[in-house]
Design a protein that fits this description.
0% strand, 405 residues, mainly alpha
């Protein structure tokens, strides 16, 4: 009972601080200290383990990855690659309805805060053909912007979750790819059922150069992915190579490049990444995670409930992708398994957290897109709830078939 109260105190402190909108990095620092105190960790041991987590090679690599991912997205946007991509798409996409979806989904390959706003003007223009309501424009732009976050290894939340669980990012991406396929399919079904076909008059016959230009416009991202999956290059090295090569080949004034660098190096993001890894280390070394295993069975109903509830609630309350991964996943490590993490349990927890993100009114993309189109969030939720339910039902089905039956 005492152990349960300590665990609940840690979770309760997180939720209270989140409610009062305390900075996420500071929340993790405070909760790390609380964990050490509640589980009787001596101050010298606490400082030693925290310091070891800060300078651990995996922590430093993770910080470098986070910074380079943000930089690459900002660089491609500043260099005009996004505009080139959209211009190429319009030359050969005949079904105008797809212009409501494809640009937003391509923008989703560029991880950046509030990135859905980049596609909003395109959706606004394309939607004039059908006189769509603000809620529908918000949904289409928002949904297709986020179809990749289950498997695209450029997303910080996916990187964090995989690092914390100790599962290679490539393995996570491949196993969760079906959820991206389901998300795209669910979005297209809703799009095609609600909106009648309209031919894009700008489109001509498909020319291979226009098709190739669509992908060339964001070639540094594809170079990173190829280096990781085809050649087995570590993600940090692959990102560094893509950033250096793109910087050499893409001509931009030094002043603009420096502006992108300054924008991309966010002290808050760096501190948050360090805080996540320290929090994970203290949970492990204080005995908190071992204590979790004494009250929660990995194969029992309580473990399954925690796999859903912890990431979902944190995702829903914060609307921040890194939050559900950084806060909930360290607590779930004993359930995943330390030596040989269970990819199915990981997948269920990740989808649960991301479902919370998608439904969160605090999610910056949802809030900004709804504000841009002047949409009532209640009307957006009426459309959003169906595809979100499909995604969660798919994850639950996988869990039931492969682990509970």
């Amino acid at each position: 009972m005492i152990i349960l109260l300590k665990i609940l105190a840690i979770v309760f402190a997180l939720l209270v601080l989140l409610k009062f909108k305390v900075d996420l990095g500071l929340i993790l620092v405070l909760d790390t200290i609380l964990t050490g105190v509640l589980f009787g960790m001596p101050v010298p041991a606490f400082l030693r383990e925290a310091g070891a987590a800060v300078i651990a090679p995996e922590t430093l690599a993770l910080v470098g990855i986070v910074v380079l991912v943000v930089y690459l997205g900002n660089f491609l946007h500043a260099a005009g690659h996004f505009r080139e991509m959209v211009a190429a798409l319009k030359k050969y996409i005949r079904d105008s309805r797809l212009i409501l979806a494809i640009p937003s989904s391509f923008i989703g390959l560029l991880p950046m805060m509030g990135g859905a706003m980049m596609g909003a003007p395109i959706v606004e223009e394309a939607a004039r053909k059908w006189n769509l309501t603000a809620a529908w424009k918000t949904f289409l732009n928002y949904w297709f912007r986020h179809v990749w976050e289950y498997c695209w290894p450029m997303y910080v939340n996916l990187i964090l979750a995989a690092s914390i669980a100790g599962i290679p990012i490539g393995k996570v991406s491949l196993h969760q790819l079906p959820f991206t396929v389901i998300a795209i399919a669910a979005g297209l079904v809703i799009l095609f059922r609600h909106i009648p076909y309209e031919r894009n008059e700008e489109a001509g016959s498909l020319k291979i150069r226009d098709f190739i230009q669509t992908f060339i416009s964001i070639w540094p991202i594809f170079l990173t992915i190829i280096l990781i999956f085809a050649f087995g290059v570590p993600m940090l090295a692959a990102l560094a190579a893509a950033c250096v090569i793109s910087g050499l080949l893409v001509r931009m004034p030094v002043r603009e490049v420096w502006a992108v660098v300054r924008k991309s190096f966010s002290p808050r993001m760096v501190i948050l990444t360090f805080a996540v890894m320290v929090f994970k280390r203290i949970l492990e070394t204080s005995g908190a995670l071992d204590a979790v295993m004494t009250i929660i069975s990995p194969t029992g109903v309580s473990g399954i409930i925690l796999l859903f509830a912890a990431p979902f609630l944190i995702g829903f309350l914060t609307g921040v992708n890194q939050a559900f991964a950084g806060i909930a996943f360290p607590l779930l490590v004993p359930i995943f398994g330390k030596e040989h993490p269970d990819i199915v349990l990981f997948m269920f927890a990740y989808v649960s957290g991301f479902v919370g993100i998608l439904l969160s009114p605090a999610h910056l993309c949802l809030a900004l897109t709804a504000e841009y189109f002047k949409a009532d969030l209640r009307d957006v939720y009426k459309i959003l709830i169906a595809p979100v339910s499909v995604i969660f039902a798919a994850a639950l089905l996988v869990l039931i078939v492969f682990r509970l039956l």
